[in-house]
Amino acid sequence: MPSTPDATPAHPCPADPAPEVRTERIGTSLLITLDRPRARNAVNAAFAAQLAAALDELTEDPALRVGVLTGAGGTFSAGMDLKAALAGESPEIPGRGFGGLTETLTTKPLIAAVEGWAMGGGFELALACDLIVAADDARFGLPEVKRGLVAAGGGAIRLPKRIPYHLAMELLLTGEPVSGEWAGRLGIANRVVPAGETVTTALDWAAVLAANAPLALAAVKKIAHAAGGTPEPAAFAAQRTMTAALTASADAREGTTAFAERRTPVWQGK
User: Residue 84's pLDDT band (boundaries 50, 70, 90)?
Assistant: First the structure.
């Protein structure tokens, strides 16, 4: 006999976990919020899959014209979840890169709204966007060399294309962060605004972009990427060959382990 509408199941199913990547439609824009604040929005395998799904939502819906990517809890993203990586998880999706974004050529404009820290892979997620709005007190950094690694989610490929070579190398070789204000001076950020205003600014900007012809916007993106010298897919393929040994090295393991154990790494050069 069918149960009544208000019947309580004998064994209620546990509630689905709250999504760690949220989407909200605002006019013709899709606001994508990284929402794993306890881990400073660090990316593990499940998080990457959810971000990829959000990007698919943006791409596949013709009513959506522009995406805005931001982070909850006062942080954009701390990058790769090192503890998950030590446990064998990958924050990459084959063919789509870190977080399901860094090697994905989206057809629609994507704006990063950066509050707080954008470190390592978090910075690389922002670099994968077309435009960046930064809070003046945001922090951008590529600390991979401090962990025996390389900024292989696009940092080492894209940053020298965006700002002067020597300035890019300063960030890549020192691993030291810069403020949102300084990122604006370097040309990393298109706009620098007071803390708390990045999403509003990015959505206002998205409305300006959305007023333009969608096919023209897609064509501009395709032409700009084609004109950038070495195509990024080829650059990422070459990078994988060069970094394979590094990623498997004892130093890379030591760097991530030392970070998880909150101690200074002891490098062996092997």
Answer: very high
Question: Strands of 117-119's sheet, edge to edge?
Answer: 117-119, 139-141, 178-179
Within 13 Å of residue 135, how many CA atoms lie on the same side as its CB? Answer: 21
DSSP SS3 for 136: coil
For 66, what's the count of Cα atoms within 13 Å in the CB-facing half-sphere?
24
What gap in Å lies between CA 24 and CA 232, rounded to an integer? 30
Tens-digit pLDDT profile for residues 164-212: 999 999 999 999 999 999 999 999 999 999 999 999 999 999 999 999 9
Name the residue with higher pLDDT: 219 or 28.
Answer: 28
Which residues share a beta bridge with 23?
32
Return d(Cα 18, Cα 39) in angstroms, integer: 14
- Write the DSSP symbol of residue 166: H
The DSSP annotation for 104-140 comes to ---SS-EEEEE-SEEETHHHHHHHTSSEEEEETT-EE
177 contacts: CB under 8 Å, gap ≥ 6? 117, 119, 139, 140, 141, 143
Structure token digits, residue 66? 């522009």
The closest of 267, 136, 255, 154 to 201, measured between CA atoms, is: 136
pLDDT, mean of residues 259-265: 85
Catalytic residue among 20, 103, 115, 124: 124
> Cβ atoms within 10 A of the Cβ of 93, count?
19
Kind plus residue range of the DSSP H or E element containing 119: strand 117-119
232-247 and 155-162 are packed helices; what angle lies between their axes, rounded to 10 degrees? 130
Q: Does the active-site annotation cover 144?
A: yes
Q: Give the separation between CA 224 and CA 239, rounded to whole angstroms.
A: 21
Q: Which of 20, 103, 115, 144 is catalytic?
A: 144
